[in-house]
Structure prediction request, 486 residues.
Amino acid sequence: MPLRSTIAAMKPAHYVNGVFAPTEATFPLLSPVDGSQVGVVPEASRDIVDAAVRAARAALDGPWGRTSVEERCAFLRRIADGIEARFDEFVAAEVADTGKPRDLAATVDIPRAIGNFRAYADLAYGRPERAYPTTVPGWSGSGQALNYTVRRPLGVVAIISPWNLPLLLLTWKVAPALAAGNAVVAKPSEETPSTATLLAEVIGEAGLPDGAFNLVHGHGAGAAGEHLTSHAGVDAIAFTGASATGAAIMRNAAEHVTPLSFELGGKNPALVFADADLAEAVEGTVRSSFTHSGQICLCTERVYVQRPVFDEFVRALAERARALTGYGPMISAEHRDKVLSYYRLAVEEGATVQAGGGVPTFGDARDSGFYVEPTVLTGLPQSARTVREEIFGPVCHVAPFDDEDEAIRLANDSPYGLAATVWTTDLSRAHRVAPRVEAGIVWVNCWNLRDLRTPFGGVKASGIGREGGEYSLDFFSEPVNVCVKI
Ligand code: NAD
Prediction:
């Protein structure tokens, strides 16, 4: 259950030029667990966004712009330590905003946020630059030169993050952006302002120069998000969220040709071959479809199962889905209604509901919350909207296939291409299939097993560019080639 006292006491606030800035405009923050109001969120005006961008620019012209990579990495480590020191507070705030099970926040969200700062402290410090000794025969003088490449920050970067893994995804961008020497203006989701506000406190306590990190709260379209991403003073935009929002941001960014990094939506497939360890594949699919009630971009919403094991797989998965307890709600009433509209659409499109399909009853305060049942569907054609559109809830559709080529064709028949999972005990098949699936990330016999050094991102409507390891540092910096005649 949410810790209301924590969130009420926390009061999400803008953080501009090293101080928490008050605003008059606010909107209510509701608990997804029982629908009650648990706080208010400030709505940043255009003036506040302007002030944040100006503060960021001034930081680049001031002490922050003169920091060495060693100094920046030391700041990152202090920020990681600061989050760790207030671990329980961060967990409580994340649980209060999202309604997610405490275990999830305590084992995934907050440890990963700490890990993001530590990983980028290591990666940025250990990053080599390149040199190219050059000989040009017949050129005047020695005919020799030394080319070397240095990287400089992009400048002021706007970071826009979603509500599903609020601190994890925010820090996944903030850490490399700061490591590379940029100044940041971040806008978290309007649904989940609390851990971002705590992060600003920790960053202040870590002694980061004023203006290097700024935080503005508020909505996206026509509000703080749009003010920020269309701002002439922003040098780059890193965004995680829905593909349609990415398209809107791209249109605004076009005016100033602002560079973009996009992590967008998905409709992720799982391919279960008849030679898979079926129990493992079922358990893996329970995790990949229902963790955080399906509200993770990497969650599986399409499962394709080889025909000889199809019935057994569906029976086992539906049984596990029906038995799930302790799951969290959808983030908002609006999102719950969207997910339920897909449950209804699926039936209209001819689906058989193998498990769930409605709203659970708990007999307590959660009955006023935003819950939906974990749901397993079968029987839809590949052309059904339920099979093509991202639902972002605890639901998957299971369909049969006959052979490898058909499995790959079905997996790739989607506007999205974020992640995929392949379940097989045939090693050769795993290596054959994985590279043919159109996705940025393919897991074999596992799901969401992450190494922060590896590239993360999607193809098609699932994103532009990659995050993780050097890929983020590449985005957040610009190579400058220097050629010195010898
Ligand atoms: P969303 O796109 O509605 O909102 C994300 C952020 O963008 C919020 O901070 C919002 O205020 C802001 N925003 C909205 N409209 C804007 C606009 N016109 N201009 C500027 N900012 C704007 O997404 P959401 O509902 O918060 O998150 C769910 C979506 O995010 C799903 O589609 C999911 O797949 C995707 N997602 C992707 C990844 C990934 O790594 N690929 C990770 C998590 C979530």
The domain at 14-264+462-485 is CATH 3.40.605.10 (Aldehyde Dehydrogenase; Chain A, domain 1). Residues 301 and 440 are 16 Å apart (CA to CA).
